[in-house]
């Protein structure tokens, strides 16, 4: 077994320290008289009691569950009015994304003095109540007939199964129910009343975390919070701002937050065009149903999961379907296009060079000319959908902006500060989220150790802890092996239940899924068993370069 300590070449030290820790009254400080030993591990000067979790998606719900089980005092903040994260489907769509040459509308000016309460009426500040509400919680980029691109068995939370006769290609609605069921089961869903008459109030929906600051003198984090509430009888929105203090914070806010608009020449001009009061060019985040595309000529921009799945949704309805795809060295060289299948109806066209300016902004884009990089031009397009991905760096700007992928340890702990801040940005929250939640709870209650900040940086800079994108299946498996080894070896020292590795039969389900849904003979049982025989140093390297990993 690869234990965390032997990985760092410190097995001797570990024995020393575990002895010392066992003798100490408060294991969580790992204090001995030997300063060189203390230097090896992260220590927390104060007991961690109050923990905030930001986001009630698959990751945040699991973190909150394990932190609660460790008897920490938890608050769970979610900007949406319900749990589910990305899987919370609504007919509501996000506020329109930002295009070049369009002034940003700032609806977010908080009062100077907190706590504060304001009431908004229709049209206050030039913004409708509906838009103010949608800006606040940001409806999700999922559409009505979205089918998960992972098998049912791999797209559910621990302890919550789908119905025995459910299809194994699960719909967004099934996944939404699964996540909500988990939230209710663990008493985190405050919509599912009564939670418990004497339970402390844990979850606050429609509550957006606006900022996160660490005090200079204290080691506590201050969250600035903003909640909106509909007052239907008076047709108003009630807005509240306040702050709360925490000893530790888990940021589980997801990766696909802000729609990425490609900066193609002329796109600002076209973005203002409307037909029948609707924009003709928009990001995929607002796509909901295929029926309105009946008989239309639709252009989808992009070649990844959204572009291809959306193309399959629209294809049976559209008159003509064009897809603008640019070459991608990794996708093309590594065969990842197996994961991104366009329907037969899709006509592939090259990347767009520019949009020729339009004079009339009310008649749609049909007469407009789109220049392609190969020198030709296309016209007669009814609607353009930008399936061009998402930016992650949208909230908590003061912290997130300087964040690099490598400022977060492989366990999720933030290394630029004392690691009482942690992120849950995993490719596979369904199985890694539980381990991560246990890791946060145990580190913060003194039942698992983290190396000192210096050692964490050394480990991360060595490059060993890059687990790749979701498509790096074996490397992702490696992350789970790391967790199981670390959590269990620490549990032997400090107590705590052992965690189970992934069930072996789940691999076969996954193999079958990939090989039948995507590419024949892509992966076999042998790949996994061979991987298991490899020492850590020989694990296959991620196949995407790390610069490409910033998707989280
Ligand atoms: C269109 C689409 C399809 C996908 N399909 C699949 C699939 O088939 N299979 C799969 O495994 N994965 C899929 N994913 C990935 C998906 O993101 C994960 O399955 C999963 O939802 C990630 O869980 P999470 O909890 O980390 O983040 P999320 O589910 O994104 O949840 C984050 C939560 O944090 C909240 N939040 C963010 N900022 C704040 C704030 N400032 N204050 C308060 N709350 C905040 C958000 O409202 C959100 O509810 C898909 C993603 C997209 C966009
Ligand atoms: N059914 C499902 O389960 C499902 C559906 C949708 C999304 N998802 C998930 O959602 C996440 C986001 O996926 P996504 O597809 O929205 O984003 P993405 O993976 O970031 O893909 C964005 C795509 O847009 C392309 N692009 C960007 N600018 C372009 C331009 N100017 N011209 C042409 N192409 C351009 C990119 O090309 P380059 O690669 O060359 O940059 C890429 O192909 C993923 O995790 C995915 O798995 C899942
Ligand atoms: C949490 O508190 C309860 C009640 O005091 C106790 O029974 C339980 O053992 C505690 N759990 C942990 C992990 O400390
Ligand atoms: C914390 O200290 C830094 C540097 O001394 C200072 O710039 C900053 O204003 C202080 N912040 C607060 C909230 O006191
Ligand atoms: C450019 O691409 C378009 C769309 O695929 C195609 O019809 C056209 O023939 C191409 N032109 C050249 C010069 O290759
Ligand atoms: C778009 O381009 C046309 C033609 O150059 C110009 O008349 C119009 O003002 C532009 N509109 C905007 C909003 O940029
Ligand atoms: C599985 O192993 C085969 C044979 O070594 C290899 O060609 C293939 O790339 C592996 N598949 C994956 C997904 O790593």
From TrEMBL:
<keyword id="KW-0503">Monooxygenase</keyword>
<protein>
    <submittedName>
        <fullName>Dimethylaniline monooxygenase</fullName>
    </submittedName>
</protein>
<dbReference type="InterPro" id="IPR036188">
    <property type="entry name" value="FAD/NAD-bd_sf"/>
</dbReference>
<keyword id="KW-0732">Signal</keyword>
<keyword id="KW-0274">FAD</keyword>
<keyword id="KW-0560">Oxidoreductase</keyword>
<dbReference type="InterPro" id="IPR050346">
    <property type="entry name" value="FMO-like"/>
</dbReference>
<dbReference type="Pfam" id="PF07992">
    <property type="entry name" value="Pyr_redox_2"/>
</dbReference>
<feature type="domain" description="FAD/NAD(P)-binding">
    <location>
        <begin position="50"/>
        <end position="315"/>
    </location>
</feature>
<keyword id="KW-0285">Flavoprotein</keyword>
<dbReference type="GO" id="GO:0004497">
    <property type="term" value="F:monooxygenase activity"/>
</dbReference>
<dbReference type="InterPro" id="IPR023753">
    <property type="entry name" value="FAD/NAD-binding_dom"/>
</dbReference>
<feature type="signal peptide">
    <location>
        <begin position="1"/>
        <end position="22"/>
    </location>
</feature>
